[in-house]
């Protein structure tokens, strides 16, 4: 059983509904950890509105993220206590909303074997076919993870230390995805991609180049429609996506 966790901001309620319906037709369970503005059209059981409930109101960093897109000022999460928020960095918001989604998956779909966590404003196509392929290729002999983690990337394709894992989407066993995100909230300014990658690397105590080859299966074969930019993510750039993202958006669906 595979469950998809759609996390964060969507482009609109209709976009989120269409994507949820698309994944369900492919045979996946879907859990959404987002905000009440975007979940109003959903009819699934697995919904978390992170701006509802008890606790402290923690304002999102609305000064514009690293993509140069300004977020409205009225987005926030409700959380038992304050956590560190840096202008332009959404790391702790991503950790908070992802962890909540993973808990709900365990409650609603305890038989889940694999989880794909994805941004709520992206649609991954042909996912049923790709998941079958990944499951056959991610065997791993390790006490850190049960199998390799599948993801897009990485930026910085060289064998050196300067690489990190994109936070667009990631696929793995339920146990491993929970381990990957079961990390402390950050207390300093750091990008989500760097924090997640570095934390895993430090846990393994292995060199960067070993961690990259041993624990991750990188792929650019999945067609990705990025609703935020109303276009397809260009998967052909093997050097990684750098600079302004819109230059990597294409009108035509990539071939796989």
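^ Assign residues to that structure.
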């Amino acid at each position: 059983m595979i469950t998809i966790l759609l996390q964060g901001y969507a482009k609109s309620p209709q976009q989120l509904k269409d994507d949820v319906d698309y994944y369900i037709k492919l045979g996946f369970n879907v859990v959404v950890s987002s905000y009440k503005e975007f979940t109003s059209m959903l009819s699934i059981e697995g919904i978390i509105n992170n701006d509802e409930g008890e606790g402290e109101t923690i304002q999102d960093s609305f000064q514009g993220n690293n993509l140069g897109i300004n977020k409205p000022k009225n987005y926030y999460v409700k959380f038992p206590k304050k956590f560190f928020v840096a202008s332009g960095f959404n790391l702790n918001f991503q950790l908070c909303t992802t962890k909540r989604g993973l808990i709900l998956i365990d409650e609603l779909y305890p038989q889940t074997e694999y989880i794909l966590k994805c941004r709520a404003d992206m649609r991954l196509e042909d996912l049923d076919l790709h998941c079958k392929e990944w499951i056959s290729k991610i065997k791993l002999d390790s006490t850190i993870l049960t199998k390799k983690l599948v993801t897009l990337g990485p930026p910085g394709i060289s064998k050196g230390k300067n690489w990190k894992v994109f936070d667009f989407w990631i696929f793995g066993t339920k146990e491993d995805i929970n381990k990957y995100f079961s990390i402390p909230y950050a207390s300093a300014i750091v990008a989500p991609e760097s924090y997640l990658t570095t934390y895993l690397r430090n846990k393994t105590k292995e060199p960067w180049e070993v961690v990259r080859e041993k624990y991750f299966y990188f792929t650019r074969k999945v067609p990705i429609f990025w609703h935020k930019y109303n276009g397809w993510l260009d998967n052909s750039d093997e050097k990684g996506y750098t600079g302004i993202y819109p230059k990597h958006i294409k009108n035509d669906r990539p071939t796989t």
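Residues 91-108 form the longest helix (18 residues).
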